[in-house]
Amino acid sequence: MNQKIQCLLVIVVAVAGIGAKDSATQDGVANETNGGEERVVTIRMDPYMDLCRGVYVPPPSLTSSLYCWYDVRNAHSVISPSKVEALSNDPFVALFHEFVHDGEIAQLLALGSMHIKQSGPSNDSWLPVFYENHQTYTLHDRDHPVVERLTKRIERRTGLSCDTAEDLKVIYNEVGAFKTAALDAIHKKEDAQRFAYAGDRLATMLFFLSDVTNGGYTIFPKLRVAIRPQKGTAAFWYNLKDTGEGNVQMKYSICPLQDDQKWTAKKLIHTRGNELRQLCRPESAPKSEK
């Protein structure tokens, strides 16, 4: 009988200890007891949701090394310098402000108006439609002078060649659309065969063709970077490491769209033709253990 009472006492004490520990954990702070001494342990949660809401505040250790500048590397930039904002230095992610003009955006949307189906009023309410979360159409440089002009502008602003780049893809999203864990570098066998002549996807240029009030952020969770859609702005980043391998840190997600619609366009730049512009550095590869 005494043994049963002792066992019950041990269980009660253990449960009480666990309850005290749980109650001490509030707002990401826990009191941990070690050898009679109490210390505060900060619990850091994944900032994915904060990034999507646009409320994540990066620490000064990250923001102190970021800066903005006017890019005047060529004659065109001297007349109209590029407004560049660095969001991450390593890996490199940047914004080009005022990259696409309103007239060019209107022309891009008009070129694909026959391909896009938009929701409309139905039963006195607005019912969104979903086509695998998005609809797309592609535009080649020969389709319209504005497309060719954008390609030339990309080459001037980035210093990369678009000779082997993919056609411009215009993307239309409606409320609720999202995308998770995407990496633009080639990782499928069929894509590698399809673009064997062009090489891997070196870099991405993402154009924002409409303003979005709620949601629709493009985020890089591993870099703690969130990009709010802003009409006329273009985001640029590299998909590969210096060794030519896909960089998993550049996996990005597109947060759920809470507005009626969102328009973007994407240009994927390949390695072929950029061997001397963006050098591959095999010495950056990890050393094999002997």
> Uncertain regions: pLDDT < 50 for 5+ in a row?
1-32, 121-132
Structural class: alpha+beta
Q: Total number of β-strand segments?
A: 16
How do the strands of the widest beta sheet line up side by side? 3-4-5-14-11-16-9-8
Shape: globular
Order of helices and strands: HEEHHEHEEHEEEHEEHEEEEEE
Terminal CA distance reads 64 Å
Average pLDDT taken over every residue: 80
**Biggest β-sheet description:** 8 strands, antiparallel
Q: Assign a percent range to the helix content.
A: 10-25%
> What does the radius of gyration come to?
25 Å
A few lines on this structure:
The chain has 290 residues and is α+β, with helices and mostly antiparallel strands.
Account of the 3D structure:
The protein has 290 residues and is of the alpha+beta class. 23% of the residues lie in helices and 28% in strands. It has 7 helices and 16 strands. The protein has helices spanning 2-23, 48-53, 60-63, 75-79, 102-111, 145-158, 189-194, and strands at residues 29-34, 37-42, 68-71, 82-88, 93-97, 121-122, 125-126, 135-139, 168-174, 179-182, 201-208, 218-220, 225-227, 234-238, 252-254, 261-270. The strands form 4 sheets. An 8-stranded antiparallel β-sheet has the order 3-4-5-14-11-16-9-8, covered by helices on one side. Strands 10-15-12-13 form a 4-stranded antiparallel β-sheet. β12 (218-220) and β13 (225-227) form a beta hairpin. The protein is globular. Residues 1-32 and 121-132 have low confidence and may be disordered.
